[in-house]
Structure formats: structure tokens, C-alpha cells
């Protein structure tokens, strides 16, 4: 029999997650994240994103169990048979988006986004944004509250709330979704190949300031934002069989 994996058990800052952390550590032991084979994340989707960002570049898989409010990225919580569940889990490999934001002549700010990169107006004035795809202007002026580029994993999050399309995990597509578009009124966004480089140029930026957000990184008063998939960065999530991320994304499209 193969040796059980060393588990680092991390919990969100809520009583339910903390209690689960204590119970699992007492039952299975708890390694430090530096020595663990698998990270067990206890919380909701927000805590899962925090955990993935914390261990970016480590190459260590993360197995989540829902002890929060939203658990789309999490497995069901059970104390029993945790090593066996992890051993039988299906892996989902994710590539985040890399944002490069320029503003006010300062040095560019780079950040990774596991869900989406979003541009949002900062004032009562609607934003005016030019959209360039792979060096070609595709939309000279979008008047809107904002716009976002989503990963397939993030397509069921903010993107879905903004009426963007849900994208299967292996589709190699990135949804480009406007947020409350005013002009062109009938433009609903686009599906882009995962290899696309998306550039947003902010028009009338002194009058219509825009912020760019990549998960937890916000840059105010941006002038230009470049977004592309970070193929050199891989994240591994573990899911129970028949409840993998691909299945959840497909099932979400039939939820009524």
C-alpha cells in the first residue's frame, strides 16, 4: 500500500472552517505547507482563490472542502476517508490570466487572475474603452460600466453574473464580456481563443477614470491594460470523481 500523502490543512477565518481544521488535523495529522504533498483548503470559493494565489508556482495540488458560503470550487465536506478521497481525486489544471496595467506614467503593474481581469468605472461617468485583439482594433469605443476577460474556471463567477457565456474547462476559450454596455447597445461580448492578447485603451481617462482588477490586485486610473493567458503558470485542483470541475461547469449551464 502506498504511503498516505502529507496534508497541510488550511482554514478560512470562520468558526465552521476552524472547527473542521482541528478535527481533520487530529484525525490525519497536519504537515507544514512547505513539507506537504497536498494542500487541504477548508472554506468557500474566496478562500480557495486565496490559497491558490498563496501557493502559485509551488506546483502543489489543492483539495478543497466546503466550509464556507459558496463552494463551486470545493468538494463536499466529510471527515472520513480523506486520504482515500484525495488518492482517487481527478485533477483539473488551470492557467490564470496575466494582467499588465499602465497608469500615470508609473511602472507597469503585473498580476495574475484565476477568475477574471475586470475593468470598472471609478466615477458616475460611464467608461469609454477601445478594444484591441492581437494587435487589431476590434471595437473603437465601448461605452459601459466596465468589461472583463474570464478564464474558463472563472466563467461561472462574475462573468456569469454579467450575462457572459459559461465556457467548458477544455474549450481553450476566454469570454470577453461587457458590464452594462450602453454603446454599442446590442454588443454582448465575444469568445476569444486562449492564445489571444487583449488590450484595453481607456478613452477620456481624465473625465472617465477606470480601475483594473485582477482577482485581488487593483490598479486605479489605468490608461492601458494588457491581458493574456499565462501558459507558463499551472494550478492543480483536485475533485472527487464524477464531481470534477469540467462536470460542474457543464452542469451549471443546465441549472434553472
Automatic annotation (TrEMBL):
Its EC number is 2.7.1.23. Its main location: cytoplasm. It holds the Pfam family NAD_kinase_C. One of its GO terms (cellular component) is cytoplasm. GO terms for biological process: NAD+ metabolic process; NADP+ biosynthetic process. PANTHER family: NAD KINASE (PTHR20275:SF0). This is NAD kinase. It comes from Neoroseomonas oryzicola.
